[in-house]
Amino acid sequence: AKRHSYVMVLAFLYAGFSLVLTLLVVYHLFWRPEGGGFGFLPPGGRGHSPLSPWALITSAPFVVLLAGGLISLFAGYSIWQLTRKKEVHAARHGVMNALLLPNEARLIGLLKASENGLTESRLVVESGLSKVQVHRIVKKLESQDILSKHKYGLTNKLVLAKDYAEPA
């Protein structure tokens, strides 16, 4: 997570530098053409004839500068979203785990351990709880959208919600 933060800051810094430089070039080419500013011609006016502003903007260095700035901005934003999503996910799991009763936490742990979910009868066997206890816990967790229950023959198959199935 710390490396992600460093890369994100560097991406935002490079994006800011490139985009500010791009805007500076556009400003001097279009809104202040009389300013000279960039020294495209040596003093005295000798050398090549000056390029038009459109030719300079469509030149390879300018396009690379603009594209690099936009790509870095997008990369920094993507990394920021990724780290934010992980932090929210970890906080949500921390709060959920703090509010669960021990038997509820045990059932959720068993469901996390099984990749494809468990039947309610199998959960009774593996948890060591009675059918009634498991049924009540399942009903409570289902009402909180922590797990979903699907008909599976004469029993129910229990699957954790996507948010809770992933490790914190």
TrEMBL record:
Keywords in alphabetical order: Membrane, Transmembrane, Transmembrane helix
Transmembrane segments: 7-31, 51-77
Protein name: Uncharacterized protein
Origin species: Candidatus Iainarchaeum sp
